[in-house]
């Protein structure tokens, strides 16, 4: 696969002269209210030298992650970002704005809630748990057959780097790893609202956004005769809360989550988020002001270091390609950035110097989304330079011309927090499903009276956890003891085996696919380049859990 962030590209990025020169701070810069920044040191600069430069620029270091040269800094200087960018020891300063987000009501993921044209949910065949007959995704990747060979090993840890995980959900509770789970994203009143606890650091095992809980269920909901089951129903689920309740992801929590994953020996990390306020982070986009250029270079550097660190420590990294219906190898002009904190403006995107992070970062397995028919979902990003494999992500508009068109059952059903459903208005204060939502929200209760809730979403965010679940099965099946207490499998081997066992899927004919029947404009037209073995819609194919655990591991096979 020819990804933009090949090993060679990473080496080049590491040697770029990233310091902004010619930025002179005005001598009479007036102080302003205190703001928080994430500052990234230049390559080869010691922590002490970086801290000295931060102080000289007018900042105070409040936390540090020496493994990747990252510092959380506060400053009341209006010109701090410019002074930091001008310092030879520093790459730049990213103000703590959202760098990856999943809004509470995502217009792609919750498309079915934005229209009244909904049909009844239909089953897809009897499975182990009561709601498994609605999980067409398990059928497509043959996860129901895979678990008869390998249901997952409790020693294998799959982390959800997201908005949190509701560990009280009866389908997630049996597999939730309390000892390894962490929250790296304190609530911020300006985006999350009032803090639920005095420290503003939500307890581990909670999710006030819902997105992470949905992802977790697809990966590893327990096969316990209750609710529904995940792709790898016996693996351990680890919460790495790097996203805000509101759905925003800040640089500092995301990087610290990845560094922690490496140090804690996590096997797989799922990253179903994308980067903003810049849809693409560019090294020197002429449309951006010098300070904005330095901020993006700092984000690129910090994310590259964090992903490389996690990979070196044995973490398999899986990311969603995004829901912007574009070829990531030939991106459109970005008209949405910055999408937080200031007014967006047109930014022509240069494919060689702009990155969609984390999915275009080093070692990340990029996943596109397909609907029940196997067709690339209209919203899904694609492209031969970024994609690795495809997986079920749901597509509300799949099945044009049949009675399944525009039905909730075309999407992905998974676990969801009751609190969030109540906030969204589909569950009442007594925990009952509100009339009109019976086809999109489900409730299951144990004999002990514990109730779990489930809802449909769609997106590459739903495709990625299918792949993370299969990666967890591969580690479970072929992993080895490491040291006295460790267990795992090199991420290179996981990746190779995942690609080798994926079900090849040829480009459609005609290769230029239009979605006009589904009500989409010409902007959604997508051209599928490549061969049966590898192409821009499906990568190496649709991930296949059964083939992954049945086929022998061949360490010398190169993808």
Structural class: alpha/beta
Terminal Cα span: 7 Å
Structure summary, number of beta strands: 22
How does the overall form come out from the CA principal axes? globular
Strand content: 15-25%
Helix content: 10-25%
Low-confidence stretches: 1-32, 120-126
In the sheet with the most strands, the strands line up as 7-8-6-10-12-14-15
Tell me about the largest β-sheet. 7 strands, parallel
Radius of gyration, taken over Cα atoms and rounded to an integer in Å: 23 Å
What is the count of helical runs? 13
Provide the residue-averaged pLDDT. 90
Give structural notes:
It is built from 13 helices and 22 strands. Strand 2 (60-65) and strand 3 form a beta hairpin. The protein is of the alpha/beta class and 559 residues long. Helix 7 (211-220) runs parallel beside helix 11, helix 8 runs parallel beside helix 9 and helix 11 (460-478) packs across helix 12.
Quick overview:
This protein has 559 residues and is an alpha/beta fold.
Please describe the topology of this protein:
Layout: H1 7-15, E1 31-41, H2 47-56, E2 60-65, E3 70-77, H3 80-86, E4 90-95, E5 100-101, H4 136-140, H5 143-149, E6 157-162, E7 182-183, H6 189-192, H7 211-220, E8 236-241, E9 248-249, H8 251-264, E10 268-271, E11 281-282, H9 290-312, E12 316-320, E13 354-355, E14 364-370, E15 389-392, E16 412-416, H10 418-424, E17 441-445, E18 451-457, H11 460-478, E19 480-482, E20 486-488, H12 491-501, E21 512-513, E22 526-527, H13 545-550
Parallel strand pairs: 6-8, 6-10, 7-8, 10-12, 12-14, 14-15
Antiparallel strand pairs: 1-3, 1-4, 2-3, 5-9, 11-13, 16-18, 17-18, 19-20, 21-22
């Amino acid at each position: 696969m020819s990804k933009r962030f090949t090993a060679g590209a990473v080496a080049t990025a590491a040697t770029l002269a990233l310091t902004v020169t010619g930025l002179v701070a005005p001598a009479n810069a007036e102080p302003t209210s205190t703001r928080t920044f994430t500052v990234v040191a230049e390559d080869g600069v010691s922590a002490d030298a970086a801290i000295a430069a931060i102080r000289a620029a007018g900042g105070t270091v409040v936390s540090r992650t020496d493994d990747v040269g990252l510092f959380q800094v506060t400053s009341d200087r209006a010109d701090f970002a410019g002074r930091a960018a001008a310092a030879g020891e520093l790459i730049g300063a990213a103000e703590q704005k959202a760098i990856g987000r999943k809004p509470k009501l995502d217009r792609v993921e919750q498309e079915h809630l934005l229209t009244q044209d909904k049909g009844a949910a239909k089953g897809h065949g009897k499975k182990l748990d009561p709601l498994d007959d609605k999980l067409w995704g398990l059928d497509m990747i043959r996860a129901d057959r895979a678990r008869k060979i390998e249901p997952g090993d409790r020693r294998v840890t799959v982390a959800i780097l997201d908005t949190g995980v509701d560990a009280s959900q009866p389908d997630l509770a049996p597999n939730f790893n309390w000892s390894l789970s962490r929250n790296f994203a304190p609530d911020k009143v300006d985006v999350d609202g009032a803090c639920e606890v005095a420290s503003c650091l939500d307890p581990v095992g909670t999710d006030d956004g819902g997105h992470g809980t949905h992802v977790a269920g697809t990966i590893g909901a327990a096969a316990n005769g209750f609710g529904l089951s995940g792709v790898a129903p016996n693996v351990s689920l680890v919460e790495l809360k790097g996203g805000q309740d509101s759905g925003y992801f800040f640089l500092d929590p995301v990087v610290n989550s990845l560094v922690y994953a490496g140090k804690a020996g996590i096997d797989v990390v799922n990253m179903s988020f994308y980067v903003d306020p810049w849809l693409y982070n560019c090294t020197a986009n002429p449309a951006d002001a010098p300070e904005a250029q330095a901020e993006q270079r700092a984000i690129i550097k910090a994310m590259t270091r964090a992903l490389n660190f996690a990979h070196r420590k044995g973490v398999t990294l899986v990311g969603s390609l995004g829901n912007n219906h574009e070829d990531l190898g030939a991106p459109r002009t970005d008209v949405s950035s910055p999408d937080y904190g200031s007014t967006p403006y047109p930014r022509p995107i240069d494919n060689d110097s702009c990155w969609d992070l984390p999915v275009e970062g080093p070692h990340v397995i990029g996943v596109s989304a397909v609907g029940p028919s196997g067709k690339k979902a209209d919203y899904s990003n694609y492209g031969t330079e970024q994609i690795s494999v495809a997986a079920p992500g749901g597509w509300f508009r799949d099945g044009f011309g049949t009675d399944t068109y525009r039905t909730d059952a075309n999407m992905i059903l998974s676990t969801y927090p009751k609190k969030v459903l109540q906030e969204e208005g589909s569950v009442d204060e007594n925990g009952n499903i509100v009339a009109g939502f019976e086809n999109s929200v489900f409730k299951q209760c144990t004999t002990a009276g514990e109730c779990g809730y489930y809802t449909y979403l769609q997106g590459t965010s739903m495709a990625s956890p299918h792949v993370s679940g299969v990666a967890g099965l591969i580690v479970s099946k072929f992993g080895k003891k490491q040291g006295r207490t460790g267990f795992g499998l090199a991420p290179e081997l996981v990746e190779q085996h995942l690609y080798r066992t994926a079900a090849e899927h040829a480009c459609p004919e005609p290769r230029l696919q239009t979605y006009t029947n589904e009500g989409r404009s010409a902007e959604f037209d997508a051209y599928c380049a490549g061969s049966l073995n590898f192409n821009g819609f499906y990568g190496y194919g649709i991930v296949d859990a059964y083939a992954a655990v049945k086929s022998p591991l061949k360490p010398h096979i190169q993808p």
